[in-house]
Amino acid sequence: MEDEELAKSLLVTQQPGNIRISNGFGSNDTGANASASGVTPVLLLSAFVTACSAFAGGFVAGYSAPAESGIIADLGLSVAEYSVFGSIMTIGGMVGAVISGKLADVIGRKYTMWILDIFYIMGWLAIYFAKGAWLLDLGRLALGFGYGLTCYVAPTYLSEITPKNVRGGITSVSMAMIPVSVSVAYLIGSVINWRALALIGAIPCLLLLFGLFFIPESPRWLAKIGREKEFEAALQRLRGKNVNISDEAADIKDYTENIQKIPEDKILDLFQQKYSHLLIVGIGVMVLQQFGGLNGYAYYMNEIFELAGVPSITGFIVVSIPQIPAIALGSILIEKFGRWTLLMVRSQKIAQSLEHS
């Protein structure tokens, strides 16, 4: 009975003369408070800063392919040593991903972005000044750790600061910077050397570092830890100084209070029978995507083109240019046809490519 009441309170909050749908992510009120769902300069700046973190992460993933031949030639690395450099990012990413949720909950979303940006900057500087494999690998490991944090905190922060009516669009555009920056890294890396490419990779990190001084902390995180005055001030900044935020603030507080009444889940709870279908589908999709060979293809594209007898510059351009419009098209199609349909089409295309390889 208590669980049913809690579930209802998370969904619907009714007041005299006004029904407010409360899903914890903003009000559906009409009328005077509709302006609370508008886009403000502070919101756009916050989305841009978050997009810089996503762009920086994608540049990390795209760096190793165009840099391969230059690094091997300049530092005298063997193929095995360069393979360590290419793959060690994944280890850093796993570590960052594992601790990202807890870190963001303890110190906040904004401070977590400070930390990941420090790792990005240290990583690029280590690669730029590397004279041997050990500093090169250390830099790549730091970049991977920052990327692992980014994959959690960037979409979380965006979803918590944006109004419901623009959340999907802003989040999609900002997180699309990851694949876009991979393409940019391929294009730029095909015409400049690997050290200069590392410095260019640091540019979005510096923009992120500068922008973090001017954006607010997530209001939802502030409400969660009980910093009520700061919570209201941050929400007011995001929605505009002349906007009435009382209803949205009340929604967030109600949602936070109700969530805190729910017992905290443990990792072993995932293995309960009621979660088995979700767990199989979720992990299965991620595993099957990796079987498509995307990381191996992305990290060692230079060598793949050379073995195929294709000039690497031509290959990078051919791969990069179609990706950007494809990302934009995917963002449109995913809203029109849904996630499941596009996932099935993608799986079918992967299966067909494997049959012909």
UniProtKB/TrEMBL annotation:
Domain Major facilitator superfamily (MFS) profile, chain residue ranges per copy: 42-357
Q: Give the signal sequence positions.
A: none
Cell location: Membrane
Q: Which InterPro entries does this UniProt record tie to the protein?
A: MFS_dom, MFS_sugar_transport-like, MFS_trans_sf, MFS_Trehalose_Transporter
The Gene Ontology terms for molecular function here are: transmembrane transporter activity
UniProt keyword Cell cycle, yes or no? no
Alphabetical GO CC annotations of the entry are: membrane
The protein's name is: Major facilitator superfamily (MFS) profile domain-containing protein
**What is the protein's species of origin?**
Quercus rubra (Northern red oak)
Q: What is the lineage of its organism?
A: Eukaryota, Viridiplantae, Streptophyta, Embryophyta, Tracheophyta
